[in-house]
Amino acid sequence: MDKKTPENVVSNVVEINNLTHYYGSRLIFENLSFNIREGSIFGLLGKNGTGKTTTINILNGFLRPKSGQCLMFGEDSYSLSPATKARVGFLIEGHVQYSFMNIRQIERYYSAFYPRWKKEAYYELMSKLAVTEHQKLSKMSCGQRSQVALGLILAQDPDLLILDDFSMGLDAGYRRLFIDYLTEYAKAEKKTIFITSHIIQDLENFLDDCIILDYRSVLLTMPVKEFLGTFKQYKFEVADPSITIPPGHIVKNSERVKNKISIYSFSSEGEVTQFLNSRGIQYSGLHLVPMSLEDAFIGLTGKY
Amino acid sequence: MISALIMKEWLKVKWVTAGLLIVHIAALLLTYYDLSNLFKSYKANEVIIQFITFEVVYYSKLKYLALLSGLGIGIFQYFPELNQSRLKLTLHLPVKEHLLIIQMAATGIVLLCLLCLIDAVIISLITALFLPREFFDSMITTTVPWYLGGLTAYVWVMVVFIEPSWRKRILLSVVGLGIVSLFYAGSGFNIYAYSIWCIAVLAIISGSVIFLSAYNFKRGIM
Fold it and tell me: Nearest chain B Cα to A64, which residue?
């Protein structure tokens, strides 16, 4: 058994314990629990309406949960001290910023609040955009505004970055630029990132850990490599096209197009074969299909 | 830090404040022009007797200016905060949240007070130029409720915009409208001579609702 020493103990930047929230009588999630390790990149994934933004709002203290505990740097997220807030960079869904300010004004504004402000990080990113210092944010494209928001967060030099759907409204180039900068920043500075996105493919080589939310519950919490290494898609053909395979212990999800069936499972090929035989299902051509993170996400959560 | 917060508020309201300043000055010039014409056309004692007999409020053009200014500054200051929940950006700053709310309100109130001060100083000079001292006293007790009405309207715009629940927003708008209308209920001059302190206390008490709306926003009550 490993002895824990101060060197190998990894502290959690965020600790969420048994969080439950309702909007009126509508349950959003129940007993949601997860931790975010210091220095890790953690993805909160889920379909629309599963509570991603709600979780982020609770984490930032903009929403009081019905029950449960949410700690950020050991403080209750609903009453964060100014010192802790200074350690957290927050990107609001849609890269919302003060659109009535120009590039220079907004940098000067935020620099007054953050002691570790790195002006050069902001202007380095701005130099890549075809904009002038006096251009208002309201006159910029969505992609350009996203870079302003990112530049401000990087200049703040936070220990934890919370990014709520950074990909919203961005084309592939800006999404790649965003991820490239974040990857470089996280690696070089050993920062913690908590991110949500509805474009899963962008996050495949970026995330360390992920949690996948379903409506009202958690489907999975594990490192992304482990998820991609253990979650498998098997395809085969059946003689009887009316066969349905309900989700259970072995099969997490299944899809059928005519007589071709795909099943998604954490089990090995042998276990799946045994399962199909035990059900008396006549099949042929069972084979493993390689999956991306997006395929695995859809496989686990379903298309609908 | 404070200067940065003031700069942000100023950027939102500078154009509407400039526009309101023009409106205030135009109203004051018109008041001066009307009075000057009256005193040129009639004898001074005739004008004064008419004013007293018919309770003429010769500065009536100023009556709703503070209200207009309170609404204008309030809407321009808080609509961008409501739009896309930008208030979250402000509340995420590493400053105690109640101080941020107070600072936002203070910036708007100071601007509004400056506009009212311009009105008060210039209308006092105009009064001193044409009319006896007694008119000055009644002018003060008549116009102060209007200024307080403008300040109260500003506070209620802030309350309504920050409140996250649409149902409560409608309710607060109705309550705010009712309270603000109390400041403009009377006609003639000196109407609030005996209740001016009550009016001032009403303005201050109703202003404290700001913190209730800010609290609701923070709790995410919809």
Answer: B219
Instruction: Determine if the pTM surpasses 0.80.
Output: yes
CB A103 within 8 Å of CB A148: yes
- Percent of chain B exceeding pLDDT 70 equals 94
For chain A, domains (ranges, CATH) are: 12-226 (3.40.50.300), 231-301 (3.30.70)
Sheet holding A160-163: strands in order across? Answer: A88-91, A160-163, A192-196, A41-46, A209-214, A217-223
Most A CBs within 10 Å, among B92, B103, B107, to test the A interface: B92
Instruction: Tell me the per-residue pLDDT of B207-219, one tens digit each, with 9 for 90 and over.
Output: 777 777 777 776 6
Burial class (CB in 10 A: 0-12, 13-18, 19+), A72: buried
Closest CA–CA distance from residue A63 to any residue of chain B (Å): 4
Report CA Rg, chain B: 20
The answer to whether A1 and A50 are in contact (CB under 8 A) is no
**DSSP assignment string, A163-215:** ESSTTTT--HHHHHHHHHHHHHHHHHHT-EEEEE-S-GGGGTTT-SEEEEEET
